Amino acid sequence: MLLSGCARWRADPAETPRSMASVTAEAHGADHYDIGRMNFNSPPAVVTTERHTGPFAAGRALSYAAALQPLDPDPVKEIRIDAMHRIIELAPGVQYGAWTLGGTVPGPTIRARVGDRIRFSMTNRSDELMPGVQMVAAPLMHSMDFHAAMVAPQDKYRSIAPGLSISFEFTLNYPGVYMYHCGTPMVLEHIASGMYGMVVVEPRAGYPTKADREYAVIQSEFYTKPDPDNRRIDGQPLHVLDGDRVRSRAPTYTVFNGRYNGMVDQPLVAKPGERVRLFVLNVGPSNTSSFHVVGTIFDRVWLEGNPDNQLRGAQTVLLGSSNSAIVEFVVPQAGIYTMVDHEFASASQGAVGLIDAGGKSEQGTHGAEHHNIPATAVPTDPVAVRGKMAFDSKCLACHSIGGGPRLGPDLLGVTGRRDTAWLKRWLKSPEKMLQGDPQAQELLAQWKVPMPNQNLADRDIDQYLAYLRWADENLQPRGKVQPQPGAPGAALPPDRKQLVEPMPARR
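^ thats the sequence. predicted structure below, dont judge the formating
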């Protein structure tokens, strides 16, 4: 029976010989989860007044971008991740006062294997001023909670004051994809402000398949409002945490890897025929995720990132807050594959990303179907920015601005063709307009598809109109593909559309 089982195992080209040891061990009755073989030894945490002033994150086991670094073979992982406050560009033109672990949102991804020892250090640097930026949030108590650890929380996860440092260590006993986050009350606000990251713990014998590409995808929610004190960062309005929204589970953004449409602007890369492995984590803090990749099927899903928890041939993976999975799939052919939270209210808020496998579409390299593609340059005016994001989320499948007609007309110049009062009535209730307005009826006769009612509030309509006016005044169309550039000085420069620069991997 053992020989027969091994023959079946080798017949799958995705399987790797590295898993033979675990197959043989299981055949002889070994238990990977034998408590007696686990290491629960963890000396008391040490808290000192020694302040670290170097890089906010350091360690060979850390990755600072979606593409994961290879596993560092050292069985002892020395890791530093400091707590500090900083400004991130959450979405184009949206400067957000984040609380961070390691200086980025999300924090760096830790990669290790079962049996490795983690030696962790953190300084609470929330009292440090950022160069050229005033203090946005008061210094706060912070801590670190590792879901991958088995330790006494009151000792290791204690909150420390600004200026203090904490260090502790633990052994990794279970494989999986785990969350880490600040565990200081109120935990809800600390996670919603950006204090989270991922720990990837590989099985002792490695994964049972060989992947060509490995990426970390971390979904999270942001709950923002304009700063009540009307502060600005580099001329842009500051946004801060909205306590009412966060407690009522009403996010303004739901994103992958800390930025609205960040993986649309900078897609992940793959090639046809390659096996892609995604380490997917939903940190919440409150909502679920239905993770899906358009155009392929998950060959394997390892729930919680553990190969013992396997599904085959899955279309979507449902993840609650702090749940995770490793999903693997083969790229069937050249194309653009869209990662999306299939709870589409979240997708409309930015939970979208692309895997670029060399595809083309009628709208350019990155087509508009299924996801939010920036249609134009990004305005500097914050009201117009809101209108642009709403337009990109809800309107791009049917309309372009300077890119030619689609299911509906090209909207470049619409504020010159229609007066403001007519546009407001049209956006508010298109079905009523179609009952008696000759211009609306003419549009239906020409385009055959009725304009759907988006149930827009007056504020939403004002944002749309601000964006359309900006586009008519500032866009400089060049051909029939998106994105269309803006006039000099009227749009944010390209380097303002990216999150803080990722830190290079240290060796």
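The chain is about 20% helix and 30% strand.
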